[in-house]
Write a structure and sequence with these properties.
Layout: H1 3-13, H2 18-40, H3 42-49, H4 68-90, H5 92-142, H6 145-150, H7 153-195, H8 197-217, H9 221-244, H10 246-251, H11 255-307, H12 315-356, E1 377-388, E2 391-402, E3 406-410, H13 417-423, E4 432-437, E5 440-441, H14 447-451, E6 454-457, H15 468-472, H16 488-498, H17 502-506, H18 525-539, E7 543-547, H19 555-569, E8 573-577, E9 589-594, E10 597-602, H20 604-610, H21 613-621
């Protein structure tokens, strides 16, 4: 555990919770001081039990002494005088009773202070956990689509769950120790110096040896922990893929194949965590052994001091010293465990930072231009795009979409149609050329403003495990008034009617308040698609992007969805990716995309008459 890593963690996590941190430190300090008062009652109790009352003790006026050592000696002498007088007047049993009461009161106050210290630590730990999850989720929402073509969903889920939990369990537990234990160690060491500086110097010579032995164990822990978290991510990724493709897995009888793959992963993860936990659990017995060895050496050295002709410490004080030293061992052990915890947690934190520090290649303009509705046209001007430098997907695309017109993109799978539509809402930026909105490069507008003017209906409708109403109103701000003086429920119903969805929604158990399940699992494909169309209708965007919205539907569902799309496309600027060519016969312009280029363009009749690519596509479907 390096000083730099501790400072980095403190600077990163603690500032929002300075007040709670200061109170935590204050009560930890108070608990430590009160524990010293509790331990101090051992000295007079031992002296009474062994008949060592200070008959020769004399009263010393504090005004007559100077210096900390002399003041402490004077206070001790005065206390012995008081105890001696009480023993003479009331007897040793009375004094022991009140010493016991004092011990109980001090211990109670110490326990109360320790509880208050933990009380103020709780909001720091839960707050940091919340902050990390908020930052990570916000970052995932802000990352460009290109990031998710490389990242695996299971890995991201693992970072959001396992890694965040590891940071909370390891680093935040370690921070709890770092706020408390250094205070205890410092106070105990200062007290030990006041009792016997010779003995304490001897202890400080031996302690670094023990710390060095413990520290060597944890040096490889961070690297091994990082590998363990990566293996957890691989396991989650396999589970995620299995759940998504369960129908295919069962259909191809591939259960055994996946089970073997999964067993290899979990066995490798088990071996990694065996190494991690064996090293982690070695810390406690090793530190306990070294602590016991230290006490044995201190007993020998302290005994030599007591038995010498010029003893600087008496037996009862030496026992008090040993109690303090033994109390020093636990916070020292915890501090070594905190070092392991931080090493484990830093491995997870690095995985989180790999996401949090990812920079988006979709740059927001420093001074975005105001954006209003489309007035003239959208223009793709010599646009080229590549996901990777060596693999160009689009090449020199020139395309104009006039306001209110419908332009369709057709072509074989993988020809670049969907990629071209993704450039319009700036899911990606072109590597060459530009996309213009009424003559202005869309990169000069804020992406939020640009996307607010667009509605998207995908081939695979994206719905959420929520009510029908909340899915339809997903793309609008329901805190604002609904259009035409209606309520938002009325507006949602109107959108559903236009999308041919109102009838099946009414037949559902709770109508618009019915939960539709994960990804809309309680609905058919056609119903899911009509809900996504209703969502786009309610948003009422001037520009519409339809990405093969009917390709996965049966004939009846396609007819209902196509009717809904025709209602949606009225008087809107529409860019359509079409798989079923029958659905775009009436488009104002059809562009045939082949290997990243527009090779033909025109109306259905014009293109079919040419006998080119488009004609072949139509004939194959017929």
């Amino acid at each position: 555990m390096t000083k730099g890593s501790i400072i980095h963690i403190l600077r990163r996590f603690v500032p929002p919770y300075k007040g709670a941190m200061l109170l935590n430190i204050l009560f930890n300090l108070l608990a430590t001081i009160l524990s010293l008062f509790s331990f101090a009652t051992i000295i007079p109790i031992l002296r009474i039990l062994f008949g060592l009352t200070a008959n020769n003790a004399v009263w010393v006026e504090l005004s007559e002494v100077s210096g900390i050592q002399d003041t402490i000696a004077a206070l001790r002498s005065d206390l012995y005088c008081i105890l001696n007088n009480l023993i003479i007047l009331r007897g040793p049993g009375f004094v022991l009773l009140w010493l016991g009461v004092f011990l109980v009161v001090m211990t109670g106050l110490k326990c109360l202070s320790a509880w208050l210290a933990n009380y103020f630590m709780v909001p720091i730990r839960t707050g940091v956990l919340r902050d990390l999850r908020q930052q990570l989720y916000g970052k995932i929402l802000s990352l460009p689509m290109g990031y998710f073509t490389e990242a695996r969903r299971g890995d991201l889920i693992s970072r959001m769950t396992n890694d965040v939990n590891e940071v909370e369990a390891s680093i935040m537990s370690a921070l709890d120790i770092l706020f408390k234990n250094p205070i205890m160690i410092l106070v105990y060491l200062l007290t030990m110096f006041f009792i016997s500086w010779q003995l304490t110097l001897f202890v400080l010579v031996l302690l670094p040896v023990a710390v060095f032995c413990i520290g060597r164990i944890g040096r490889s822990l961070k690297r091994t922990s990082k590998r363990g978290q990566e293996q957890n991510a691989e396991i989650l990724a396999v589970v995620d893929e299995t759940l998504l493709g369960l129908r295919v897995v069962k259909g191809f009888n591939a259960q055994d194949k996946l089970r073997i793959r999964f067993d290899k992963l979990i066995n490798a993860a088990r071996a990694t965590y065996n190494r991690i936990n064996r090293r982690y659990y070695l810390a406690h017995p090793l530190s306990e052994f070294l602590g016991t060895a230290l006490i044995a050496v201190i007993l020998w050295f302290g005994g030599m001091l007591i038995l010498s002709d010029h003893a600087t410490i008496d037996a009862s004080t030496f026992i008090y010293y040993l109690v303090i030293f033994y109390s020093l061992i636990n916070p020292s052990k915890d501090l070594s465990k905190a070092s392991y915890g931080i090493r484990k947690g830093m491995a997870s934190l690095e995985r989180l930072d790999a996401v949090l520090n990812t920079t988006s290649d979709i740059a927001e303009p420093s001074e975005p231009l105001p954006l209003c509705d489309l007035h003239k046209e959208i223009c793709f001007e010599h646009v080229s795009f590549a996901y990777q430098p060596e693999r160009e997907v689009l090449t020199d695309i020139c395309l104009t979409i006039p306001k209110g017109k419908t332009v369709a993109l057709v072509g074989q799978s993988g020809s670049g149609k969907t990629t071209l539509t993704d450039l319009l809402p700036r899911f990606y930026d072109p590597t060459e050329g530009r996309v213009q909105w009424d003559g202005t490069d869309i990169r000069r507008f804020a992406t939020h403003d640009l996307r607010s003017l667009m509605g998207i209906v995908c081939q695979e409708p994206v719905l959420f495990n929520d009510t029908v109403y909340n899915n339809i109103t997903f793309g609008v701000d329901t805190t604002q008034p609904a259009p035409d003086g209606m309520s938002w429920l009325q507006a949602a119903e109107r959108a559903a009617k236009i999308a041919n969805a109102h009838e099946f929604i009414q037949d559902m158990p709770e109508g618009y308040n019915t939960l539709i399940g994960d990804r809309g699992s309680r609905l058919s494909g056609g119903q899911r698609q009509r809900l996504s169309i209703a969502r786009a209708i309610l948003k009422n965007p001037p520009v519409l992007i339809l990405d093969e919205a009917t390709s996965a539907l049966d004939s009846e569902s396609e007819r209902l969805v196509q009717e809904a799309l025709e209602h949606l496309m009225k008087e809107r600027t529409t860019l359509v990716v079409a798989h079923r060519l029958s659905t775009i016969r009436h488009a104002d312009l059809i562009c045939v995309v082949h290997e990243g280029r527009i090779v033909e363009r025109g109306t259905h009749e014009q293109l079919y008459a040419r006998g080119g690519y488009y004609t072949k596509l139509v004939d194959m479907q017929q």
